[in-house]
Amino acid sequence: MSNRRASIVVGITSVAIIGVLFGMRFLPAPTPRVYVAAANVCLSEQSAPRVEASAAYVLDIERGEVLYRKQETGQLPLASLTKIMTVLVASEMLDGAARVTITKEALATEGDSGLYAGEIWGAQDLIDYTLITSSNDGAHALALASGQSDQSGGFVNAMNAKARSLGLAQTYFLNDTGLDVSTTTSGAYGSARDVAMLVTHVYRSVASVFDASSQKRRVFTSVSGFTHDATHTSAVTGTLSGEVVAKTGFTDLSGGNLAVVAEPILGRPIAIAVLGSSKIGRDRDVSALYAYAKSVLKRSILCEASL
Is 224 a catalytic residue? Predict the structure, then answer.
């Protein structure tokens, strides 16, 4: 190395050493943008959405944390959310491969979902059809086929016993469909928290039984050879990522109800229940709560990672 080059190297080295010793900075340090952004997000408050529903509840199933609550313990009419329990209890009494006959008694319930007297269905297909279309006839047929005497209230008693075993303190059933018993009495009552806990149990224990509940459309062919087109009663169903359970409810007394289990972020399923909204409002409410829950979960993950 030439004497001139050696002098330059020594000079640069000396300046660098002096800079370190005396705290001199020759180049600006890079700004940790990710951490600054995370800090801003974690320190800011997140506004919860306003919902039309009288009551609502959102649960982070994985951690058991409540993400949103509004009058969550108030006892309100459940309407066809009742059919979640109907299907749950019927699935415990009937093998999925069993056959169910649609009796005239089953067709005597309010509403016509297109089933025929004497028509035979596979039990799981009838469960799927009932969940998608919210068929009162299908629900009652499943209850009658369970082997519990309807006249003695056996099946409804079993539904109430199941509710107690799951700790659903505000929930009780008067029938297996949720149809209003009169102009002042609903066929079932419960809270938004209870409904969220019920669908959480379904998700954890018997999700496969409820697979069809989140399907937008499906064509069924009964064992008797009759074809039935089924369209879900919720407009939001099929639009939520990781959706595995979805059930609607609506009567004059209840207004619009909707319960879902979905997974806005992989590995973080949530349960959402809204009661006392409207037919259109229940979908809007669930969509807003889903988006809010997704944002809260993202924020939680980001803030934990930045610690």
Answer: no
